[in-house]
Specification:
Radius of gyration: 17 Å
CATH class of the largest domain: Alpha Beta
Strand order of the largest sheet: 10-11-12-9-3-13
CATH topology of the largest domain: Gyrase A, domain 2
CATH architecture of the largest domain: 2-Layer Sandwich
Shape: globular
Number of strands: 13
Number of helices: 8
Largest sheet: 6 strands, mixed
Structural class: alpha+beta
Number of domains: 2
Order of helices and strands: HEEHEEHEEEHEHEHEEEHEH
CATH superfamily of the largest domain: Probable tRNA modification gtpase trme, domain 1
Distance between the termini: 26 Å
């Protein structure tokens, strides 16, 4: 057991999760919400905060080549996500911009290593962006997720129209957001990256929209069980 206050890095959703009755567990240098939800609710409709997990961006004309050089699986296909060998994701937003998302068990310091390996003196036309600071990370899982998104999202996220590993740079609850479908096991999963400063507003909108469809909150351990199952 731990508390968010024991760590230097804290999720922007900690107040809402405390109010929801979350317990806390340590993940790297952060506390993650624990003891929320179960696999059955996550397969139906659930909201999970993954903001404590590492994420990192790179931007510049030679970004794709630089990521390939570092051993990542990626191609210059905009609005496409690529699964990595460790279970992480590489989101290609444009030919010169990517965001890397940690696997659910954590990345073992891989993001920090990628950041620290970069040097202005290398001459590569790419540079890192600290997306853990700029973007909150929320995941919506479950069969009812597309119906929920129909209430608050500007585009059609139905499973047939928005296949696995698709990316939409769109509006969710009138906020600019990056939505990536990257299923966890057999469960549909939509990863939302949005401005950290607006995370509580977005969380309130998501929980309000999910209530109509019997949605609930879940935690990282629940998602790990989905992945294993």
């Amino acid at each position: 057991m731990t508390t968010p206050e024991e760590h230097l890095r804290r999720t922007p959703l900690r107040a809402a999760l405390v109010n929801a009755g979350a317990a806390w567990a340590t993940a790297g240098n952060c506390a993650v919400a624990d003891r929320l939800g179960d696999a059955e609710s996550a397969r139906h409709l659930a909201i999970t905060d993954l903001s404590p997990l590492p994420r990192l961006g790179f931007k510049g004309r030679e970004t794709i080549a630089a990521m390939q050089k570092r051993g990542l699986t990626v191609e210059a296909t905009p609005n496409r996500a690529f699964r990595q060998d460790d279970g992480g994701l590489c989101l290609v937003l444009a030919p010169g911009e990517v965001i890397l998302l940690s696997p659910l068990p954590g990345d073992g310091g891989r993001m920090r290593e990628l950041h620290d390996q970069w040097s202005l003196d290398s001459g590569e036309r790419t540079y890192p962006l600290l997306r853990s600071d700029s973007h909150a990370w929320i995941v919506i899982t479950g069969a009812k997720a597309p119906e929920m998104f129909a209430k608050i999202c500007a585009i059609d996220l139905s499973l047939d129209s928005f296949p696995d590993l698709s990316i939409a740079q769109t509006s969710v609850a009138k906020l600019s957001a990056i939505v990536t479908r990257a299923d966890i096991g057999k469960t549909p999963a939509f990863h939302i990256l949005a401005d950290s400063a607006s995370a509580l507003y977005l969380f309130d909108c998501l929980t309000d929209a999910a209530q109509e469809f019997g949605g609930s909150l879940a935690c990282l351990n629940v998602l790990k069980n989905l992945e294993d199952g």
